[in-house]
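User: Hello! My lab partner asked me to get a predicted holo structure for this protein. The small molecule is magnesium ion, SMILES included with the sequence. Please write out the structure tokens.
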Amino acid sequence: MPLKIGLTYDLESDYPADPENAPDANSEFDSVRTIKALKKGIKDAGYILIDFGNFGNLLKIRESLKSRADIVFNISEGIKGRNREAQIPILLEYLNIPYIGSDALAMSLTLDKVLTKQILIVNKIPTPFFFVYEKAAFNNLKLNFPMIVKPRWEGSSMGINSKSVVYSKSELEKRANFIMKQYRQPALVEEFIIGSEYTVPVIGNSPPETLEPLKVKLNGMEMDNNVFDNSFIRSEGIDYVPLTGREKLKNKLRALALKTYNCVECLDFGRIDFRVNNNGEIFVLELNPLPALNTDDALAVSAKHIGWKFSELLDKIIKAALMRYKMVHKTGIN
Ligand SMILES: Nc1ncnc2c1ncn2[C@@H]1O[C@H](COP(=O)(O)OP(=O)(O)O)[C@@H](O)[C@H]1O
Ligand SMILES: [Mg+2]
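Assistant: Hello! Below are the structure tokens for the protein in complex with magnesium ion.
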């Protein structure tokens, strides 16, 4: 009998837009298209798919959850706050149900970009200079413009567009105040790295492995002064291009991706975003333990480049978790 995999997710249509929130507040939630592709991919990989939906649905059926699925594939973003991605993992931990993907602690930690950067720094992983905006301390800082202002704990480029890149203290102050008010959280200010953008998917545990590193391009061009804007996510403008040649850069990106994944103890899968400046210096921007999983997103593009179908990519992620829980004995990602 094939294993039963419960899928947990937040659909955009589960949460009507709230005029009190920022206009892009629902960007992290998944489209029907993504969930359809995932369900098909899990079934194509030979598992029985059990559709659980969001946290609210899980609460309603919590007594019977354990008997309905052998393991849960969680891609839920959660509702609000910096622990939102940990909501379903915590419930599953409480119910003693195995689940695929990072645990509650890694989810919360990596959503908070400031805590993550502090861990990166301790581990000597290069990340752009940063500070958390506070008016009192701000006037005495010596800053290298341009800088970028972001919400401290969001994803999917929420609150990030061309206005986020600031060139003076007054612009910075204005944008930081806007972010704090609109997103009800501290503003993170970082040195803006002009150059190319890369992203590296990682799969597995002890040891994890990288898939093919990808360059992120916007309308065929380097990212340079542009940012991965929230509106690009659903547009055609973004391309993920496998790096042909460039072995030295690829090896450095792979090594840093693994080090980053390990230092926050990610599980089963993740994706690390990078910028490389015009002097070739590499910086980790962030780590995503819940990277977008659609057939045209970075993980699928990278997997395709090494010859895996989408269902195989999902199977490798599932097998990584099964192995961790000792639910299968032998597997590898290759
Ligand atoms: N320090 C930076 N230098 C250059 N570009 C940046 C920097 N921080 C963010 N960006 C741009 O903004 C995008 C989103 O930022 P990121 O920190 O990855 O937030 P999110 O969690 O919303 O994806 C990045 O993909 C990149 O294009
Ligand atoms: Mg990102």
